[in-house]
Amino acid sequence: MESLKGKSVLVTGATGGIGTQLVRLLVGSGAKVFVAGRNAEKLNNLAIELTIPQAQVLIMDIANETSVNSAIDQLLLVSPVVDIVINAAGIGIIKTMDLLTSVEFEQTLQTNLFGTFYLLKRILPVMKLVKKGLIINIPGVLGKIPMAGAAAYCASKYGLTGMLQSIREELKRTDIRITNLYLGGVDSPFWDNIDLRVQRDKMIITEEAAKAIWFLCQQPSSGVVSEMVLQPFNHQAI
Ligand SMILES: NC(=O)c1ccc[n+]([C@@H]2O[C@H](COP(=O)([O-])OP(=O)(O)OC[C@H]3O[C@@H](n4cnc5c(N)ncnc54)[C@H](OP(=O)(O)O)[C@@H]3O)[C@@H](O)[C@H]2O)c1
After folding, report:
1. Interval between CA 94 and ligand 1 midpoint (Å)
2. What is the distance in A from the centroid of ligand 1 to the CA of 110?
């Protein structure tokens, strides 16, 4: 396993259910963690709790390219090398076609798909300079299989799968690795506003989803974990 000590790690969605638990693990392993999110108050509270320096707190609306670029610029002032990026930002609007609006469809793609594009567009040249890096995304199982009511979400996450697999092809001659994590249901605030009957008590807990990502961050450098699938035991969709 590769040590995380001193590694420069960016976590988007750091204020989310999975992101927050992950940041805790990374800080505990001695990584230099940059926490990115759109909510300054939540980010600052996390930074205070974990004694993350203010310079490592990045206000970033991932759905806005200018905001992504300026957050990464701020990061580069502190750390010119970014060893690992974990993109744990995302939204889930789960509605059937009769209820889903075009604004919600656009918002979902803008955050989950375009947001990831903006992030990679800015971070890849930084990693290419040193010819190495690790990028972990969470398309989730709905990036591989369909679900009723998930037209917008699946469009964004299938899009992610295709985009990331294509980028991976471009990066084959570098040591920049892309890992896709296909998570099943995780009991996080993600589900708070989703009007669907789900058994949250049967889902993966955020601490364990975060541990899987923490493990992926330490994968041996001579190979790459291209994909990992982690699902609730009683609901294996793949
Ligand atoms: N939970 C699941 O069942 C599950 C399953 C498979 C895949 N995933 C994926 O895993 C990732 C993390 O999910 P989670 O369960 O931790 O959800 P969560 O608790 O809802 O956290 C989502 C995070 O994304 C951030 N975010 C949303 N829109 C943003 C924007 N425009 N700019 C910046 N940050 C934004 C949120 O920020 P705020 O704190 O400001 O809202 C929050 O930090 C998502 O990509 C999700 O699709 C989740």
Report:
1. 14
2. 13
In CATH terms, is domain 8-230 a member of 3.40.50.720? yes
pLDDT tens track for 123-155: 999 999 999 999 999 999 999 999 999 999 999
Domain range list for the chain: 8-230
SS (H, E, C) the chain: CCCCCCCEEEEECCCCHHHHHHHHHHHHCCCEEEEEECCHHHHHHHHHHCCCCHHHEEECCCCCHHHHHHHHHHHHHHCCCCCEEEECCCCCCCCCCCCCCHHHHHHHHHHHHHHHHHHHHHHHHHHHHHCEEEEEECCCHHHCCCCCCCHHHHHHHHHHHHHHHHHHHHCCCCEEEEEEEEECCEECHHHCCCCCCCCHHHCEEHHHHHHHHHHHHCCCCCCCCCEEEECCCCCCCC
- Residues 5-27: pLDDT tens digits? 999 999 999 999 999 999 999 99
Ligand 1 pocket: which of 12, 190, 191, 199 to mutate (most atoms <8 Å of CB)? Answer: 190
Cα(39) to ligand 1 centroid in Å equals 12
